[in-house]
């Protein structure tokens, strides 16, 4: 680093803005799959059961969850930027594999790489933004980060839906992913600067008092706020795994076109993405706990409505509600981790939280797939709705308010 290290969004505006753009490219890599891959499984590769069709989400979730954990540790050991660049290098072959995969096994290999890519790049951009923002505007920083990522998922989702409708499921939709990977690698290599010194500056001379094992146990089970956040993150991505893997299949079974399916998926993601611009900042003012509780309950209600509906307008309304509930939760969970974890071990705590959160994709693939095969897709949706509402009640009963201003307000 050259010059004095300063914390805060205004003091680090150029680098923060660049990292927001990089995270949008990370989200775009995920968006290339949201509509096309579930339909590719059924229509191109002939996978007839929901459990088989969702294997790509199961694989992605398990690999990304594990990579998140190591991303935090590697970022503390080697710095943030090398981990970010490594994630983009691993992302380069993904679109090519999806374009030309001769069998479903090749799609699974692509999703192993996607899990590593997303775990390294998204985790690292989160950690770097927390480093730069400092404690005062952490919620706003996470709102901007997650908004950029999921708005890019939304835009890419609708774009790939229309490309698939016009040119077929392959290869056209995945050309976007190839462009994202090349641009992300270039920006991360040339323009992004290391932020580890900002975390060291905030921590002062105090070393981490915990081993990685102790941090895992604290974040997962022992510390009330951190463990509450971890289980809520897992359940949140459990229901997103269902929305990703089963809803396009359900909509197609009701006769919706690829363009309309892409629109519905993008509507949910766009509300989720845009909403975080407000909810992240609101959590700095109102506190974290109430937004997490009401966000999980809102998601549970929305999923129940999706399971009961059978028309495009009702699905659209319910998906808006689902996106709003997810927006209340997503940046707030990350901000709460930043509130509780000391800067000397914060990157590893973020890695552990994201391990549990993205493990929710794997849990969602299993729960939704098995339930759908046994009892039908509506039953799977209602099951996940109940789990989501229960998670919100766990937060209400177990978590304390982590933000000082929010705690004073309550």
Automatic annotation (TrEMBL):
GO MF: transmembrane transporter activity
Annotated SUPFAM superfamilies: MFS general substrate transporter
Major facilitator superfamily (MFS) profile domain ranges (all copies): 7-403
Family annotation (Gene3D superfamilies): MFS general substrate transporter like domains (1.20.1250.20)
Membrane topology type: Multi-pass membrane protein
Transmembrane residue ranges: 12-30, 50-71, 83-101, 107-128, 140-162, 174-192, 261-279, 291-309, 315-338, 381-400
Keywords, alphabetical: Cell membrane, Membrane, Transmembrane, Transmembrane helix, Transport
GO cellular component, one term: plasma membrane
Cell compartment(s), UniProt: Cell membrane
Domain of life: Bacteria
This protein's name: MFS transporter
Organism annotation: Nonomuraea rhodomycinica
């Amino acid at each position: 680093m050259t010059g004095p290290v300063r914390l805060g969004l205004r003091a680090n505006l150029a680098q923060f803005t660049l990292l927001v753009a990089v995270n949008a490219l990370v989200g775009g890599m995920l968006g290339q799959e949201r509509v096309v891959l579930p339909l590719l499984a059924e229509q191109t590769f002939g996978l007839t059961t929901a459990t088989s069709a969702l294997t790509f989400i199961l694989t992605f979730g398990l690999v990304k969850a594990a990579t998140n954990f190591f991303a935090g540790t590697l970022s503390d050991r080697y710095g943030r930027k090398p981990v970010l660049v490594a994630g983009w290098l691993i992302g380069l072959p993904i679109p090519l594999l999806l374009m030309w995969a001769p069998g479903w096994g090749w799609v699974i290999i692509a999703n192993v790489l996607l899990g590593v890519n997303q775990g390294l790049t998204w985790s690292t951009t989160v950690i770097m933004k927390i480093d730069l923002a400092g404690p005062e505007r952490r919620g706003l920083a996470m709102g901007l980060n997650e908004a950029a990522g999921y708005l890019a998922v939304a835009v890419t989702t609708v774009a790939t839906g229309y490309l698939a409708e016009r040119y077929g499921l392959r290869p056209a939709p995945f050309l976007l992913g190839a462009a994202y990977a090349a641009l992300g690698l270039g920006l991360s290599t040339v323009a992004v600067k290391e932020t580890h010194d900002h975390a060291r500056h905030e921590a002062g001379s105090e070393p981490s008092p915990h081993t990685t094992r102790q941090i895992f146990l604290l974040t997962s089970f022992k510390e009330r706020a951190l463990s509450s956040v971890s289980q809520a993150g897992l359940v949140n991505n459990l229901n997103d795994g269902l929305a990703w893997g089963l809803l396009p299949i359900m909509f197609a079974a009701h006769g919706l076109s690829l363009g309309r399916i892409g629109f519905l998926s993008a509507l949910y993601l766009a509300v989720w993405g845009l909403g975080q611009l407000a909810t992240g900042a609101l959590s700095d003012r109102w506190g974290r706990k109430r937004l997490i509780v009401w966000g999980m309950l809102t998601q549970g209600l929305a999923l129940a409505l999706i399971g009961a509906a059978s028309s495009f307008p009702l699905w659209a309304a319910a998906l808006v509600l689902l996106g709003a509930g997810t927006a209340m939760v997503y940046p707030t969970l990350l901000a709460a981790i930043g509130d509780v974890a000391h800067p000397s071990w914060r990157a590893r705590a973020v890695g552990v939280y994201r391990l549990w959160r993205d493990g929710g994709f794997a849990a969602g693939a299993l729960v939704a797939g098995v339930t759908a095969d046994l009892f039908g897709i509506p039953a799977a949706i209602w099951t996940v709705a109940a789990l989501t509402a229960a998670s919100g009640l766990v937060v209400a009963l177990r978590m304390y308010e982590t933000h000082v201003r929010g705690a004073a307000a309550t």
